[in-house]
Amino acid sequence: MKHSAFTRVHASLLILSGIIILLLAGMRIVSYHCQTLQQQLAVISEAASQEDMAAAETSLEAFHIQWNQSYPWLMLFVPRQSVIDLNTSIAKLLPLAQANSEELCAECHAISALLEFLKP
Prior knowledge:
Elements: H1 2-49, H2 53-77, H3 80-91, H4 93-98, H5 103-118
């Protein structure tokens, strides 16, 4: 009987340890992806503020590639509606850049603020 209780305690500790490791890994993954996206948004915003739309569009292409890599990870660890809101805002960036819109910088800052909110 003691052997059974001892293995249950071990199993419980293993499960708890696994949950904690998963939580910590998720926090690190979300932080990494948010930070990487924010850095790229800063580059886009800087190019747009200098009215260099060609550089902004080139940076946007790299940003979209990174977003496509980050999206599945964020969907795992972040509330779904937050990621959907981000996706909606990100979809506006390329049309704003192509239209040479002054709103591009503002939209970049808004997305960056949403990403900051998601960081653990």
